[in-house]
Each structure stands twice: as structure tokens, then as C-alpha cells.
Design a protein that fits this description.
About 10% of the residues lie in helices and about 30% in strands. The protein is mainly beta. It has two domains: about 1-165 and about 240-280, paralog of FGE (formylglycine-generating enzyme); about 180-240, Roll (SH3 type barrels), CATH 2.30.30.40.
């Protein structure tokens, strides 16, 4: 593992996608983060020692994805988090991941500001159409010494994803939203006691208000509304139910190679371009 000292760094971007705005200074305590993504060999050991508690990922059925030094892929957020706990670690926060990838100078990519090439990263258009071994492109490591924080695989992190989070996130050790949330985007809307609406309204939600999401039924979300449970239609606002993902997959466009690029996938989601690395407190 690589040690990242405590202190501030620049997080986010004023010129990237809207969910990266604004760029600001964020302070973190020191932490450790894996130099490489978790490999197939490491994940196989986890499966063996947990004795059937988790199924083998779909990628284990593909000959070109099972190399012992390739990153494990097609695991859900829950499975990645379970592995991290088994290993005595945890998934990094978005802030930790970005600091480990970007360092202190606000660079665009882990290797600096030079535009990407296939000599430094593995992304869409490369000749090899599967993940490379985790130690490939070691010469393009981040300032913290982490390898492949741009390209090869997307990486689960611990936070819930919220495209607007940076607008209200704390400047000290942000750890993401507390829970999946619904943000009202219309001027006002009634909150109903049952998913279909009906005649029983619990009150009114107004634009900009946020509510914890408790569940979903088709295009209606159950929210915590005061001391009760109410329902809002999907069309009334933004529903943030995904977990955050950083980095870039081997089959994905180069824009996601930037250290500040963000994605969010549902916690159950699996893909052959999605893996993870672990972190722990210093």
C-alpha cells in the first residue's frame, strides 16, 4: 500500500463536467491506499476463505479476463466492500481516491498534464480488448505511486454518488452523502402517503429540498418526510441512488482518464470494466 500524508489538495474542476464543479481545496487526514487494483488471484483467495458466501464474478467465465495479475472485474459495490472488510481495509472515499491520483499540484492526469496516449493508459481504441495486468503502465503512476488510476478499469469508491455534492460538501475530510437522496427540482409538489398519489397528501416539498430515499416502486420514490414515509414521483427531481465510481475502463472514452472525472453506478451493477482498490486509515 502507498501512504498519502495528511493535508490539503485541490479537488474537482472548474472546466470539467458539471458534477466536478467547483474546484476547491479539501483537507484530508493521512491514509493508505493500494498501489494496484485488487487482482483475480487476490479475489479468488477471498472467495475460497469465505466458503461460498459470494459467487464468482461473471468475468471468471471468460478466458481473457482470468489472468492472476489482471484486476478482478464484474463485482458489485457490495462484493467489493465485503472484500475490503475481509482484507481489514475499506473502499477509499472519492476525496481519498482523487488525492492519491492527482497529488498536490492540481494536475489533469495521474502522470501530469500531457494528453493521454496508449503508452501511459489503457482506454477505448487500444489493441487489447480486456484489462491489462495491474502493474502495466507503472511508469505513469500517480504522485502517490498508485498505478493505473487512469484507464484499465473503473474503480468503486465508498461514497454515495450525488452530482451536486461538491456544492455543499465539507472542506474537511468529505465522505460523501450520508444516504441516497432525492432533490426536488420543481417549484413545489405534494408528498403522498401512497405511491400512486390519491387523496392523502402528507405535505408539500419545495424546490431544493432533499430527502432520504427509503425505497422505490417503478417511477415513484419512498422518502423520509418528517416523521413519516411519503412518496414522490421520479419526474419531480433528481434521485441519487448510485455509488460513486472513479477512474476509467479499458473500453471507455479518454475523457474519463482525468483525475477529476466522476461516475455513479447502482450498487448492484457489474461490468467487465469495473473493479476496485482498497484503502485504510494511517
Amino acid at each position: 500500500m502507498m501512504h498519502v500524508p495528511e493535508g490539503p489538495f485541490l479537488m474537482g474542476s472548474d472546466i470539467g463536467n458539471q458534477d466536478e464543479h467547483p474546484q476547491r481545496e479539501v483537507a484530508l487526514p493521512g491514509f493508505w491506499i493500494d498501489k494496484y487494483c485488487v487482482t483475480n488471484a487476490q479475489y479468488r483467495r477471498f472467495l475460497e476463505e469465505t466458503e461460498g458466501a459470494f459467487k464468482a464474478p461473471p468475468s471468471f467465465a471468460r478466458d481473457d479476463f482470468v489472468g492472476p495479475r489482471q484486476p478482478v472485474v464484474s463485482v458489485s459495490w457490495e462484493e467489493a466492500s465485503a472484500y475490503a472488510r475481509w482484507a481489514g481495509k475499506r473502499l477509499p472515499t472519492e476525496a481519498e481516491w482523487e488525492k492519491a491520483a492527482r497529488g498536490l499540484d492540481g494536475r489533469t492526469y495521474p502522470w501530469g498534464n500531457a494528453l493521454p496516449t496508449y503508452e501511459v493508459a489503457h482506454y477505448a481504441g487500444a489493441e487489447t480488448q480486456c484489462p491489462l495486468d495491474v502493474d502495466a503502465h507503472a511508469g505513469a503512476a500517480s504522485p502517490s505511486g498508485c498505478v493505473q488510476m487512469a484507464g484499465n478499469v473503473f474503480e468503486w469508491v465508498g461514497d454515495w454518488f450525488d452530482a451536486f455534492y461538491y456544492r455543499y460538501a465539507p472542506a474537511e475530510n468529505p465522505r460523501g452523502p450520508e444516504f441516497p437522496s432525492f432533490e426536488v427540482a420543481v417549484p413545489s409538489i405534494a408528498v403522498f402517503a401512497v405511491p400512486g398519489g390519491g387523496n392523502l397528501a402528507l405535505g408539500e416539498a419545495k424546490k431544493g429540498e432533499r430527502f432520504e430515499i427509503l425505497g422505490r416502486e417503478k417511477n415513484t420514490f419512498k422518502i423520509r418526510f418528517g416523521g413519516a414515509e411519503g412518496w414522490l414521483p421520479r419526474k419531480a427531481g433528481y434521485a441519487w441512488t448510485a455509488r460513486a465510481v472513479r477512474g476509467c475502463g479499458w473500453d471507455y472514452i479518454e475523457d474519463n482518464l482525468r483525475c477529476t472525472a466522476r461516475e455513479g453506478f447502482e450498487p448492484w451493477y457489474k461490468n467487465f470494466n469495473l473493479g476496485f482498490r482498497c484503502a485504510m486509515v494511517a
